[in-house]
Design goal:
- The chain is built from ten helices and two strands, in the order αααααααββααα.
- It is mainly alpha-helical and 186 residues long.
- It has two domains: 51 residues, no CATH class; 125 residues, Winged helix-like DNA-binding domain superfamily/Winged helix DNA-binding domain (Arc Repressor Mutant, subunit A).
- It has a two-stranded antiparallel sheet with strand order 1-2.
- It starts with 6 loop residues before the first helix and ends with a helix.
């Protein structure tokens, strides 16, 4: 049996204060997807993000980037303003034409979109939507800032409760959004 101060005893004690429907739902979530439960509780501020286990970090963040993606990430690190895929292609053509010599497909929007999305999935670039246009930023924090502006939030009012919505709206990894938000609010 769990001792009084053990995590299991604290969890059981917390479950006793919940309604039966909420308790049943949390128990199902704990059994079926414990990583999602931990992530949700961290987003809501019930757990320290630092205390989350390594298995809650998205696998895509640790994905290996191709040489083309690594080079593209380096070139876009100083792109400044948020840019669409077509604007990024134009920027590269103007400032880094050698990238097209190395990667001939870079001139084509679908190829470039795939590479940009891989960089976003890896937490290397930020992304947000402005109407129907997807814009990329050199940092996740910039994307979170622009998302807040487009959604009528002050950056200083954003909390861990907003991570899920920001991640859903921008399709950036939750852990990257959490880190970008932390960077903005420190």
């Amino acid at each position: 049996m769990a001792s009084e101060g053990s995590p299991d005893a604290r969890v059981e004690s917390a479950f006793e204060t919940l309604g039966s429907e909420t308790e049943a739902a949390l128990r199902r979530l704990a059994q079926n997807d414990p990583a999602l439960l931990r992530e949700t509780l961290a987003d809501l501020g019930y757990l320290d993000a630092e205390s989350e286990s390594a298995d809650t970090v998205e696998n895509s963040e640790t994905a290996d980037l191709t040489p083309a993606q690594e080079r593209l990430g380096e070139l876009l690190d100083s792109m400044g303003n948020p840019r669409s895929t077509n604007e990024i292609i134009d920027l590269l053509a103007d400032q880094h034409p050698s990238f097209f010599d190395e990667h001939g497909s870079a001139k084509h929007r679908p190829w470039m979109s795939n590479q940009l999305n891989a960089l976003v999935d890896a937490g290397e670039l930020g992304r947000y939507r402005d109407g129907r246009t997807i814009l990329y930023t050199p940092s996740i924090a910039d994307a979170v800032r622009h998302w807040a502006l487009k959604n009528d939030y002050f950056v200083e009012d954003l909390t861990g409760r907003h991570v899920g919505r920001i991640a859903s709206d921008t399709e950036m990894p939750r852990s990257a959004v959490r880190e970008g938000l932390r960077e903005l609010t420190e």
